[in-house]
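Handout, page 2. Input:
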Amino acid sequence: MHLQGKLVPGRLTVEAEAVQRPLKPMVIKASLPLELEKVLAEPAILQDAPLQAELSLPESDLVFWPAWCPPFSVYRARWGWT
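Output:
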């Protein structure tokens, strides 16, 4: 897992990458408008803050599946979504 956050005046951004072989890495990027002084004074305002997030899940081959779950070894599949 790799996590990187950046706080600049007015905005918090976070990027996380999770790797679990044999799957390809999943990347999550998120951004949130954040005025730190206001949040420290009134933490509840975060509940109404507009969060933007993007998940990238590349297509991965599931040839490892029979080793993990033998009863389902007859299935052949690929999955992915962005």
